[in-house]
Design a protein that fits this description.
Helices cover 18% and strands 27% of the residues. The strands form five sheets. A five-stranded mixed β-sheet has the order 12-13-14-15-17. Strands 1-8-7-6 form a four-stranded mixed β-sheet, covered by helices on one side.
């Protein structure tokens, strides 16, 4: 009898563990019913939409991406809307928060206006610092605590960086992949290195005849297995994802803002673009927030064959001083790309990052 009771308890415990660890099930039925459901919301009224989003959030949320975007989406009248609430490192302690959203339709439809507001007390929005990297936003009778991702102790393992490289900070991308941002002072180029100390939520394969390149089945991120050091360098992101501005466009828009040591990023940028002296702050942004210089050294590839020149270059230059230039799509820019300001005048910041 005792054996049977023990077996029954073990069976119940196993079933409970399975239920807790089982993947969430997604169905077409849920999608159809969400897309076709009748809703009442004035999407032209930004404060009405902000109030709606706040009302649907729990009392405390976790902001994973390191540029402090909390992304959301919803369906209204058969259209999906995407947007974000952003606690920008340069303005949040002034009691300000960015809010943006747009019609999330298709890549070919470019007429969707991005609605953006920098909210503060004048809009009835209160932003309070609760503690380091924790903020409370209150609007009307609703308060939500936003816990930013605390990565202050994250550093690359010993032996990960080359003699000419400096570590700028940790990145948690909205794709759920984590990176280390590094700068090569000698070659004046940036790299994103895969953080493998944490679980990497993807599965990788090597395309045919590209033995040192690994591509994520979920993200489409392409990494090169360095010949000199035990690390993987981000060398490509699928161009379709970059055009769609979705979660898999790469980490250029999730820089380690909360963890930058003083002026280190600005000084690295000025080594690449000295003409920007006096025009950018320590985050690489124009003083009015109209533009932020993107750090995008990886290649926007259309098909896997586009990655072949990277592997060929690395094999050819593995013993040469400029070997690491093989992993920067435009080595003259050091991997930096200046985005065009979008219609709101805040290109590269909250408006441009209302992810699909």
């Amino acid at each position: 009898m005792q054996v049977l009771v023990a077996a029954a308890i073990l069976s119940v415990a196993s079933a409970s563990a399975f239920a807790q660890n089982a993947p969430a099930l997604q169905t077409n039925q849920a999608y159809v019913e969400e897309a076709t459901g009748k809703t009442a919301l004035d999407v032209s009224d930004m404060m009405a939409v902000f109030g709606y989003v706040m009302s649907k959030l729990p009392e405390r949320v976790k902001v994973y991406p390191t540029e402090n975007y909390y992304y959301f989406g919803f369906y209204h009248d058969g259209i999906r809307y995407a947007g974000n609430i952003r606690l920008d490192a340069s303005t949040r302690d002034e009691g300000k928060v960015d809010f943006a959203y747009f019609e999330d339709t298709s890549v070919w439809y470019e007429e969707a206006e991005v609605k953006h507001l920098l909210l503060d007390a004048s809009h009835g929005v209160k932003v309070e610092k609760v503690e380091d990297l924790v903020y409370r936003i209150t609007y009307r009778d609703r308060s939500v605590v936003f816990a930013l991702n605390d990565l202050r102790g994250v550093k690359p393992p010993e032996g990960t960086l080359g003699a000419d490289e400096i570590y700028l900070g940790p990145i948690f991308d909205e794709s759920a992949i984590q990176f280390y941002l590094v700068f090569n002072k000698k070659l004046k180029i940036f790299h994103y290195l895969l953080n493998e100390r944490e679980a990497v939520p993807d599965q990788f394969f090597s395309p045919k005849k590209l033995d040192r390149i690994l591509v994520g089945k979920r993200t489409g991120f392409a990494f090169y297995q360095d010949r000199r050091l035990d690390r993987k360098i981000l060398v490509g992101a699928f161009e379709g994802n970059m055009r769609a501005n979705n979660y898999f466009d790469g980490p250029f828009d999730q820089l380690p803002d909360n963890f930058l040591a003083g002026d280190v990023l600005r000084q690295a940028i000025l080594q690449v673009r000295p003409q920007l002296e006096g025009q950018i702050d320590r985050f690489g942004s124009a003083p009015d927030g109209s533009i932020r210089f993107n750090i995008g050294p990886y290649l926007p590839y259309r098909e896997l064959a586009d990655l072949k020149p990277i592997e060929a270059c690395a094999a050819r230059k593995q013993k040469q001083p400029d070997y690491y230039r093989c992993f920067v799509s435009d080595d003259e820019s050091g991997g930096m790309v200046a985005p065009k300001p979008n219609k709101s005048g805040r290109g590269g910041k909250a408006t441009a990052k209302a992810k699909r």
